[in-house]
Amino acid sequence: MKVNVQTLLISTLFMALFVSAYLFKLPPFYSFSLQFNDINYLQNPKTPSKEIVFVAVDEKSVNTLGRWPWDRVKLAQALLRFKEAKTVVLDMVFSEPTNESSDAQLGDAIGELGNVICGFFFDQKERQGIDESRLELLNDSAIEDINAQSVELTEYNYIEPNIETIMEQCMFNAPFNTIPDIDDRFRRYPAGLVFKDSHYAPLGLSALQ
Fold this sequence. Notes:
This protein is of the alpha/beta class. The protein has eight helices and seven strands. The longest helix is centred in the N-terminal third of the chain and has 19 residues, at 5-23. It is elongated and about 80 Å long.
């Protein structure tokens, strides 16, 4: 069978262009590949595990318990109802102190459960910063043996951590950052994040661990 050299060359160049555009995230090929992946995902739906329960602060919750943010005593009382859970994950951050009693009760509830992973934010924009005592607590949740060559890591310069009263009671402290694609949709989950030369597993992977 004879092969048309010109056709083969054009096909090879087109394929090289497509792969390069995808690797370097060049439009419109990269956008097309993302849309194709969306279609593939919709055609192959996954059933969430029944072992995972999502507790939402939704409109019904606000109508019942009042305007958000609630007094942290309410959150402490709610957390203590999850004693049968293997792991409790908080995708909310308590970065500012309220009143000492409420903050202490929430911290005590987290400590009593003993299985709470507390979320916080990393950011590229300047936040309030972190003092040495909270940085030491944060380092207790760092990953020591990650292979930075095998995963894609994003480095951050700033942090919005929980207050120390809460942070010191958490089993782990984990960031809940996600990284959007160029169309602002979230399709991927970071394998690790870097802050002050330390590596941290994101909230979901910490929960899985």
